[in-house]
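> Could you send the Acyl-coenzyme A oxidase prediction when you get a chance?

Sure thing. Input:
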Amino acid sequence: MLSRKELFKDTLKKAAHAWKRTVELHLTEEEANLLRLYIDQPGYVDLHWVMFVPAIKGQGTEEQQKKWLTMAYKFQIIGTYAQTELGHGSNVQGLETTATFDPSTDEFIMHSPTLTSSKWWPGGLGKTSTHAVVYARLITEGKDYGIHGFIMQLRSLDDHSPLPGITIGDIGGKFGSGAYNSMDNGVMRLDHVRIPRDQMLMRLAQVTREGKYVHSDVPKQLLYGTMVYVRQTIVADASRALSRAVCIAVRYGAIRKQFGSKAGGPETQVLNYKTQQSRLFPFLASAYAFRFVGQWLKWLYTDVTQKLESKDFSTLPEAHACTAGLKSVTTSATADAIEECQKLCGGHGYLNSSGLPELFAVNLPACTYEGDNVVLLLQVARFLMKTVSQVASGKQPVGTTAYMGNIQHLMQCKSVVNTVEDWLNPAAIKEVFEARALRMAVNCAQNISKAPSQEEGFEAAVAHVQLIIVTKFIEKLQEDILGHGVKEQLQKLCGIYALHLIHKHLGDFLSTGCVTARQGSLANERLGKLYAQVRPNAVALVDAFDYTDHYLGSALGRYDGDVYSALYKEAWKDPLNETVVPDGYQEHLRPLLKQQLKLSRL
Ligand SMILES: CCCCCCCC/C=C\CCCCCCCCCCCCCCCC(=O)SCCNC(=O)CCNC(=O)[C@H](O)C(C)(C)COP(=O)(O)OP(=O)(O)OC[C@H]1O[C@@H](n2cnc3c(N)ncnc32)[C@H](O)[C@@H]1OP(=O)(O)O
Ligand SMILES: Cc1cc2nc3c(=O)[nH]c(=O)nc-3n(C[C@H](O)[C@H](O)[C@H](O)COP(=O)(O)OP(=O)(O)OC[C@H]3O[C@@H](n4cnc5c(N)ncnc54)[C@H](O)[C@@H]3O)c2cc1C
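Output:
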């Protein structure tokens, strides 16, 4: 119910309090991150910790890190990541802001040459950040060397006013009433602003005192390293958001009753309807699947980072493909699922007090920020096409594409499934996912020379990423899992995750010849049985996420199931209910009613 200004101020207050507690309690970085999660409101700190600090860590020299990170870690400065412009977001190489080296003063001149070169979107830029890593075209000795990162001070550390030559503001209200409106996404124009040469982030490339451009012996893609890092964290965010929505919808589904009473008996819990289960349980399974793949992705990222430190860049393309692909598939599925959970809760799901509208509005932009999901999947397609051509020339693929090495078998195999029970076999499931992904990638690679099709590449990328998620779920189940019967429940969810994808993408599986129509219908039959088996434990499976009522913020998703009293209480909190007769009655309602009354008496 807060206005934009109040909401923004509230975010500042919460962030300042969280930082105070972080310091007082000597929280570790991991604990401090958890604190941000509990605050649960997008704010400038996200950009400071998730992008500004990592950008300096990844692209700054040791000296630069020492200088800037020392201040950033103590919150003496607040930073953001200023890459996107009004005219270009996806196409990073198309950015227009310039950083022209002036050897006479040993400075860069930072400038926005056009309206479309205005920085547009960076979180925290609008009203909060004192500093930013600004991405701009480096020009020296008259030559344009493309996009590089620069540290800029934006606002005075004394009175917070923008420094000379810098025009900054907020870009305006965003989707939803609360949601991302707590964040001051900003616009910035630079008018020949001078910064010292040593504020260019110089780990990947340097400009010498004389103005000579020198590139280090590291891949230039490391410039995109911060985005790889954040995409990896977004997968974990998506799984959390999805599990919150599912928790609300499952708990409410167990409370809500409609129809089906026989001889005056109780009505049916909506969760018992098969249609409700077939819409909802795939989301429950996806929430677990995304959590497991997110844990694996975190491991992959750490592994790649360690390799990069010892100058082994071999796994960088795979890390890019995995983070880009998983970020896309998990955030798109999550946004769709939250919206569907709202429908699964009927009319009450549309109320703000259900918690679902806010959850949707906060998570929807994850499909766009940190790389539009379609653009990122096209990057995965590019990686797959390269891998296919390497396999064709005899190179053995590794990591998540290792299955492509089994090309002879996977291009021809027919699924071994013959009965409904056969679809319980993880090896049978994995084989059809591998065969589908490989065949789609190979078909796309073969067609590229004839008529390049973006959609074919996109679909092949989706198939590959879904294979990764299914595989990581299956691998998780090979680990020791504590708790009586827990593994069995997870096996059922794994089955649901994989089989619902076969159901959804049956066209792909049929057209690539991986499964027959009969096998497809056996998969559906198996899926129906799994839904029935999961139903008795559905509430326990969402309770296992261990969310407090406060964190869930939903009248429908309450742990105690006392949904109706909660909805009733929430309704009375609405400002419209502060007075019995509404504001506006005297000016607009009363005269109207009186006039109609007069007319009717004539
Ligand atoms: C004591 C301690 C106290 C600590 C206290 C802590 C307190 C804690 C408080 C808070 C913590 C917060 C908790 C964390 C919670 C997480 C919250 C998450 C919130 C997120 C907020 C997000 C904000 C959003 C920010 C943004 O959106 S930033 C902007 C993002 N922009 C994009 O993503 C742009 C997308 N476009 C691109 O990436 C590129 O343009 C492109 C599409 C990849 C194309 O690139 P290019 O033009 O160069 O073309 P290509 O020719 O296609 O590529 C060339 C080759 O490069 C390869 N490539 C491309 N990208 C990469 C990459 N990233 N890595 C590696 N390689 C890459 C590509 O494959 C090509 O290779 P080739 O071999 O085929 O040539
Ligand atoms: C809430 C939010 C926070 C953000 N925070 C930041 C931030 O802190 N810092 C920052 O720098 N940026 C930030 N951004 C910007 C964000 O990174 C960009 O919006 C994003 O990268 C998408 O770029 P775009 O807006 O240019 O979309 P566009 O590329 O213009 O996309 C428009 C449409 O075109 C399609 N499209 C584009 N290129 C292709 C292609 N090659 N092939 C096929 N289809 C294509 C897309 O799929 C999409 O449907 C934020 C954005 C949002 C929404």
